[in-house]
Prior knowledge:
Layout: H1 25-32, H2 36-50, E1 55-65, H3 94-106, E2 111-116, H4 125-138, E3 143-147, H5 153-162, E4 166-168, H6 175-178, H7 187-199, E5 203-205, E6 208-210, H8 216-227, E7 235-240, H9 257-270, E8 275-278, H10 287-295, E9 300-302, H11 315-325, E10 328-329
Parallel strand pairs: 1-2, 1-9, 1-10, 2-3, 3-4, 4-5, 6-7, 7-8, 8-9
Helix pairs in contact: 1-8, 2-9, 3-4, 5-7, 8-9, 9-10
Bound molecules: S-adenosylmethionine (SAM), 6-(5-methyl-2-OXO-imidazolidin-4-yl)-hexanoic acid and iron/sulfur cluster.
Iron/sulfur cluster (SF4) binds near residues 76, 117, 119 and 149.
Amino acid sequence: MSESCVPNAVDQxxxxxxxxxxxxxxxxREIYDRPLLDLIxxxxxxxxxxxDPARIQLCRLLSIKxxxxxxxxxYCPQSARYDTGVQNQPLMAVEEVRRAAKRARDEGASxxxxxxxxxxxxxxxxxxxxxxxxxxxxxxxxxxxxxxGMLTDDQAQRLAAAGLTAYNHNLDTSPEFYGRIISTxxxxxxxxxxxxxxxxxITVCCGGIIGMGESxxxxxGLLHQLANLEPHPESVPINMLVRVHGTPLADAxxxxxxxxxxxxxxxRLLMPASMVRLSAGRNSLSREAVSLCLLAxxxxxxxxxxxxxxxxxxxDKDDRLLRDLGLQALEHGQGPS
Length: 337
Ligand code: SAM
Ligand code: DTB
Ligand code: SF4
């Protein structure tokens, strides 16, 4: 039996698998490299110890400030450095955001995530408006998540006071590969923001992207970083690169969906209690591939026709898939946030 599923004393909730934060890179590699069906079977067993296998969380994204970002993230259609056809939009009005969040809730989402194409949060009118948006969405009985770039401790505390549930800030890839994708901020800057979020008592949403030309070893490196954050990020988005014309990664080689499933299963075994979100990239996956990712331990998806700026599967199609799989939407307060 492998390290990750050695039975421990069973805790009060009947969970035999203990959370660990001392993974070595070799032990992560040992898990990642297992025969895929063994890996998925082990991941599904751990998944069932910690989560209701009949439910997945539906989340909805909204780009509250779009395009014109000064950063050079090689995957991103919102960087001002690339000609991608994304229309720049200033910060939305609070009421418009509140209406979108209410619609998302009425359509079954229990988490609403607002994204801004900023390098970092700046104090001032725009940040005050975002705080109002957070208050408005929180009052709709939704989990509220924001992704606004780098944050200071003080800004994180103000977001917490406004009722923010989670802050998304991804490590994106391994420390070694990171410099090939982004030059305008460092891996350590990202870790600093994640620490500020933690210190403010906001839950952490932190994951990465696969399909940027990275190797298995880079995916292992990313998972190793995430799994040694203590506590683990409560939410781990695994994105499949959406290749956007005009970005440096527009022609990146497609990654096989089995690699995505392998990455998800490894994340599930390393971070058993976290929500693992099959995030961007579902538009290029078959329903069988999505099903395999759910079997591998993903328990959340983004729904709605758009992610931030790129398309996502039609809602009807997702509803049909969930029905065919016998899955129901997790309601607010039912799962770990
Ligand atoms: N500007 C903020 C930041 O970078 O932290 C927040 C928004 S940014 C769009 C949020 C995350 O979306 C990125 O960290 C990246 O992981 C993901 N993302 C962006 N473009 C993507 C793409 N084309 N395919 C997959 N994921 C992408
Ligand atoms: C995350 O990890 N994935 C979401 C969310 N966090 C903000 C964003 C995906 C963006 C995909 C590209 C786009 O639509 O612009
Ligand atoms: Fe800007 Fe975020 Fe896109 Fe990077 S990922 S270019 S920081 S919007």
